[in-house]
Amino acid sequence: MIVTKLLEYEHDDMLEHIEKRRPNEIYVTELTECPMKREFRRKLWFMEITKPAFIIGKLIHIGIQELLRELFPNSTIETEYEKEMEIEGKIIRGRIDAIVDDYLIEIKYTRGIRGQLPLQHHIEQLQVYGWLTGFNKGIILYVTPDGIKEYELELTYNDNNILRLLYDDCKPKYDWECSYCPYSNWCPFNIQHQGGKKK
Length: 199
Ligand code: SF4
Fold this sequence. Notes:
CATH architecture: Alpha-Beta Complex
Low-confidence stretches: none
Bound molecules: iron/sulfur cluster
Number of domains: 1
CATH class: Alpha Beta
Number of strands: 6
Radius of gyration: 17 Å
Mean pLDDT: 90
CATH topology: Lambda Exonuclease, Chain A
Structural class: alpha/beta
Strand content: 15-25%
Largest sheet: 6 strands, mixed
Helix content: 25-40%
Order of helices and strands: HEHHHEEEHEEH
Number of helices: 6
């Protein structure tokens, strides 16, 4: 009963965002990942929401967002804060996990640590949120089976940084991306089928 409700909730939430999405709209997360995923997501978004890691990550987000209000009772706290900006005809849209006073907070659940924390695409994501909101301080909070860690960043991105991400057409952006991609079985650029070479 609970699982069915949970999956229905995720489905409806995602559908609402997809239906409202304008043709020139790009999510912040899409600027920092393989651009081919963006193409797949426009039609095949439902393939992403049934992954257990996605649902567990969502639950952790909700839990921490609630906890922040308990931990910082005297702070100004916003959660799931949405913001968008237009640049060269594209609308960059983001939903920030939390804002605590003058800090943007990005919560990340990861099962395994692929390299050195904080991960590059998470840094870029938070930097883009900084550009979107005008905030200049942020924290990435990692929740992993091996521990909980936080990394504070100075947010410095300007329009040039955003345009670099926007026009990066490398598929995939990172060698490990295809292994975790929900579209990997259908994607002609899957690095595992290309002898390990990016296109
Ligand atoms: S399989 Fe790899 S190249 Fe294809 S969409 Fe996924 S991450 Fe991108």
